[in-house]
Amino acid sequence: MSDQGSEEPPKDKKKKSGGPQFPFGGPKLPNFKPFGGWKFSIIYILILVIGMSLFNYVFLKKVNPTIDFSEFKSKIASGEIKRVELTDSYFTGYTTVTPRRETTPRPFLRSSNMAEQDPVYRTVPLNDLENIIKLMDEKGVAYYGVSREGSTILNIIFSWVLPIACIFFIWRFLMKRLGNMGGNVLSVGQNKAVIVAEGDIITRFNDVAGVDEAKEELVEVVDFLKNPKKYTDIGGKIPKGVLLVGPPGTGKTLLARAVAGEAGVAFFRMSGADFVEMFVGVGAARVRDLFKQARDKAPCIIFIDELDAIGKSRINNIAGGNDEREQTLNQLLVEMDGFDATSGLIILAATNRPDVLDPALLRPGRFDRQVLVDRPDLLGREAILRIHAKTVKLAPQVDLASVARSTSGFVGADLANIVNEAALLAVRAGRQIVYQQDFSEAIEKTVAGLQKKTRIIQPNERRIVAFHETGHALIAAFTPGSDPVQKISIVPRGFGALGYTLQMPVEDRYLMTEDELLGKIDVLLGGRAAEDIIFGKISTGAANDLTKATDIARKMITDYGMSKRFKNMALTQRGAGMMGQQPQEPVFHREYSEATQQYIDEEIARMVEQRYNLVRERLMESKSLLDKIAELLLEKESLDEKEFKALLGQPIEI
Q1: Are 184 and 178 in contact (CB under 8 A)?
Q2: This prediction's pTM
Q3: Is the pLDDT of residue 198 over 80?
Q4: Which of 58, 229, 335, 350 is the right S-S partner for 291, CB 3.0 to 4.6 Å?
Q5: Which domains are present in the chain?
Q6: Which residues contact 631 (CB under 8 A, 6 or more apart)?
C-alpha cells in the first residue's frame, strides 16, 4: 500500500482472578468483614484522632503548672495553701478549706474545675514527706491522699492502647491498598500465577486454526499427560519444556490453553514480568513458590508468557544489567533441572524474541523442544476466519476465501479483529447481518486507518493527492509481478494519510527477486513522478514513499548482496529484533569502512535516481491516461479494482 502523507498509520484477556483460587474446586474463603460488615476507611482514623484531640482540649487543657518544692513549702508556711492533696505523682495545694466531694474520684475534672475558681499549686514530691506533714500539722493545713487507679487506667488507654490501635488500623489499611496494587511487602515471595482448575478450560485444539504443524508437535504433550505409561514403558521421556516461538498475535497463548484444555489438568499461567519486583530476591522466591505449588498439583502445566522478560542472555550483558533478573533466571534454570520428567509437570513458554534468550534455557533438558507458531497461510487464514465468524450472522454471499486472499501477512489476532470490525460496521449501518462490503471496509480500516471524512482539504491539495495516488496505481499496473491494485482513494485515513493506493498480493510470497524489489521502488516513486509531470513541482506528500524506497535500496546493497562492487556479500550484522513481518528497524553494527559507507550512499542515490527517471518516462508516455483516471478519482473520491481495470482496458478477473 502506498499512501499520501508523511507517516504510514500503524496496523492494527483472560479473566483476572481476584483473591485466592483453588484449582480443584476447594471452598472459597469468605471475605473478611470486621465488626459485622463494617467497612474500614481512613476517614474513621481521622475521626478518632480528632476526637482524642477534642478530649484532651476539653478535659486536660488546664493542667496547672508545677512550682518548686521550696516555694510550695513557703506557701504552706505563709498560710496561702489551706488544703493539700497527696498523690504519688504530685502534691496539689488548694487555697480553699472545703473540698468538692464526689462519689467517684475524678482528679482531672476536680482539679480543672477548682482551678477555674481558686488558685491551685502543684509540685513534684521529694523524699521529704515527714517534714512537710509536720509543717502542715503545725499550720493546720488539711491534707489527704487520693488513689490514682482510675487515672492510671485512663493514662494507659490514651497513652498506649489508642495510639497502638490507630497505628495498627492505618497499617492494615495501607497494606490492603498495597496488596491491591501488587506491592504487599508480606506477599512479595508468593507467585502471581493465575491458576485455572482442572476442567475449567474450555479451549480445545478445534478452536485453534492456521498452525497445524504446531498443533501436531503439542499432541505428544497432551498424550503424555493422559497416558504417561505408554511412554515410560518403552523408556521414552517427554520433553520437560516446550517453547512456543512466533510473531505477536499468532496464537501462542491460545495453543497453551488448548493443551491444558485437551489434557484436562490444572493450568498455571504467569507472565515473565510478574516475577520481577522492586525488591531484591522476589523473582527467585516466586519461581520457587510457583514450582512448589505446581508439584503439589501435578500433573499440571506451567505456562510462562513473554519468557524474554526474565530469560535474556547473560553473555552480552557487559554493562552489568539487572542482578535481580539474573537471579530469577538462575532459579528458573535450577527448578527446571530439579524435577523428574515423569512427574507430569510440563512447562510451556512463549516468546517472540528467541534470539535474545539465554543459551542455558534452550539446551536439551530444559526447553528441549521449540515449536514455531508462524503467520498462517491462505488456507490457515480462511480457517481462522471461519472459527471467528461462527458467532457472527453472515450474509449468504459472504466469501471468506476472498477475505483470506485480501489479508496476506495477517496473524490470527488481526483476523479476529477484522471479523469483529465487520460486525460493528454492520450494526453501525443499521443491518442485522454482515455483508462482504463490511469485511472490505474492515480490512481498509485495519490497514490504512479510520476515514477522516470531516477533514477539509484545499482543492489544489486534493488535486495533488489525486494525481499522486494515480501515479502509484499506474506504475503498479505497468510493473510485471507487482501486487494488483484493489482500491485507489483520496479520502484521508488514519494519521497523516491524505490518500492511499491499496495493493494486496494474490498469493503468499516468501522470496523476492531483484527485479521485484526494483518494481517495488518504482511503485513507491510513481506518486512523486506524477506530481513532477503534472504540476512541475514536488510536495512533501511523498515523504513516506521515499523512506520506504530508500530502505529497500539500502537493504539490496547491504543485506541482499545485490550491488556491483559487493556482489553476494552482506555488509551488516543484524542485531536482535522482534519476530514479525514489518518489525521496527533493529540496531545494526557497522563492520565496514567510511569508504564503503560512502559507496553505499552513492549507490543508493544512483539506484533511486535511475528508477525515478524510468518511472517518469513511463508516466509521460501514459499522460492522457494519468489525467483521465485522476479526474475521475477527483469526482468519485475512490475507485475499486473493477473500475480501475476498466479504465486501463484490462480484462476483469472473476
Answers
A1: yes
A2: 0.67
A3: no
A4: 335
A5: 62-147 (3.30.720.210), 211-372 (3.40.50.300), 386-448 (1.10.8.60), 459-648 (1.20.58.760)
A6: 466
